[in-house]
Amino acid sequence: MMKRNLIVEQDLASVNSLPLPWERLAGKVVMVAGAYGFLPAYVVETLLFRNEQDASFGVKIVGLCRSPDKARRRFAFYEGRDDLEFIFQDVCDPVTYRGKIDYIIHAASWASPRFYGRDPVGTLMPNVLGTRNLLELARLKEVSGFLFMSSAEIYGLAGEEHIPTGEDYCGCVDPTNVRSCYAEAKRMGETMCVAWHHQYGVPAVIARIFHTYGPGMALDDGRVFADFVADVVAGRDIHLRSSGTARRAFCYLTDFVHGILAILLKGTPGLPYNLGNDEAEISVRELAAMLARLYAERGIGVVKAREEREGYIPTRVERACPDTSRLRALGWRPKVGLEEGFRRTVASFMD
Fold first, then answer.
1. Peptide bond into 164 cis (omega under 30)
2. For position 306, what pLDDT does the model report?
3. Could you give the 3-state DSSP secondary structure of residue 183?
4. Would you say residue 325 lies in a domain?
5. Nearest Cα residue to 251 out of 151, 154, 184
6. What residues make up the domain containing 258?
7. 158 in a structural domain
8. How many Cβ atoms sit within 10 Å of the Cβ of residue 329?
9. What are 145's strand-pairing partners?
10. Domain CATH code at residue 272
11. Which of 62, 134, 276, 314 lies 20 to 30 A from 107 at CA?
């Protein structure tokens, strides 16, 4: 019998203990587009775990995704359950579903910087055509809630005067840069959410997601924190591929799930909410040093790499940190600090 990862089990229990209006999801159907992605998959698992703890809760998940093989691998622990159903299709095609849908979470998108230059059209379309298709489905089904997973990338090259960055900052993105396909598509997706809310009453809310890490993240996606965790798990020195002065706010996965559910269930339609841990800002070099210290017994050091690893994405933004006042007004607070979060992440890959 397959066992659930111990760190994941603890995480799911932690989120389910939070004082959220869970009753709004009881007996409901939640469609999650991009269900097996790193971030949405933990939302799916959180709700399935609640069904395990409370047989009367009765939420059903409809996962919309492209690859049956990836879905089966990611949710192998839940195979054969009646509360998890899949629709296999591209979100860029019209989405139909005969049953009722009460909530929709749209997370179908390439999220790794590796794909922005390699597949800009494939990066852009799910956030535009896919958003249109899901908003139309939300309108027809008269859903109780629609959440669009946007990104802090929409802020572009924010100057120091706009950091911590609030939701009223409009961003600075060059639309003619091919790598802007992700940021500009997310910006358009946000505008569509506002338009469908204004014209059709779709209760669409927006989560602008900052750097998030935790169990299940891809260790080869080119982002620096994933590279560092991969180094620690492999027991090798941590390789810096820059000066390491860029600063980021890193949010652990349980705090992310808490924020997503708070926005979905308590957010104001038409509004964006920053979702990131403003209490966990650190420079890239400091993060490397922290991980080396946490795993000193493994003989891990920090070295400056002479060559960039294939897939490595150099940063263009010196500092990224959210103003989370709007999300905090919904009752959200980050609970997991940097050391605890990265210890849990590394442990999840070594279980």
1. yes
2. 59
3. helix
4. yes
5. 151
6. 6-218+250-279+321-338
7. yes
8. 12
9. 103
10. 3.40.50.720
11. 314
Instruction: From 290, 195, 221, select the one nearest 39 (Cα to Cα).
Output: 221
CB 108 within 8 A of CB 166: no
For residue 171, what are the CA distances in angstroms to 69, 158, 163, 186?
Answer: 38, 6, 12, 12
Other beta carbons within 10 angstroms of residue 98's beta carbon come to 4
Catalytic site residues? 182
Q: Are 99 and 64 in contact (CB under 8 A)?
A: no
Q: Per the structure block, which two tokens stand in for 65?
A: 């995704």
Number of domains within the chain: 1
* Residues 22-48: b if buried by 16+ CB within 10 A, e if exposed: beebeebbbbbbbbbbbbbbbbbbbbb
| E strand or H helix at 226 | helix 224-234
Distance CA(144)–CA(207), nearest Å, equals 17
CB contact at 8 A, 153 and 186: yes
How far apart are alpha carbons 281 and 195 in whole angstroms?
A: 34
d(CA 250, CA 265): 24
- Residue by residue, pLDDT tens for the chain (351 residues) are 688 999 999 999 999 999 999 999 999 999 999 999 999 999 999 999 999 999 999 999 999 999 999 999 999 999 999 999 999 999 999 999 999 999 999 999 987 778 888 899 999 999 999 999 999 999 999 999 999 999 999 999 888 899 999 999 999 899 999 999 999 999 999 999 999 999 999 999 999 999 999 999 999 888 899 999 999 999 999 999 888 999 999 999 999 999 999 999 999 999 999 999 999 999 999 999 999 999 999 999 999 875 554 444 445 678 999 999 999 999 999 999 999 999 999 999 997
Alpha carbon distance 8, 71 (integer Å): 18
DSSP helix/strand/coil, 351: coil
**Residue 310 falls within a domain, yes or no?**
no
d(CA 295, CA 267): 40
Query: What is the helix (H) or strand (E) element at residue 201, kind and residue range?
Result: none
Give which of 316, 302, 277, 27 is closest to 144, Cα–Cα.
27
The rounded distance, in Å, linking the Cα atoms of 42 and 105 is 12
The helix or strand, by DSSP H or E, that contains position 112, with its residue range, turns out to be: none
Predicted local distance difference test score (pLDDT) of residue 243: 85
Is residue 235 one of the residues assigned to a domain?
no
User: Is the pTM higher than 0.90?
Assistant: yes
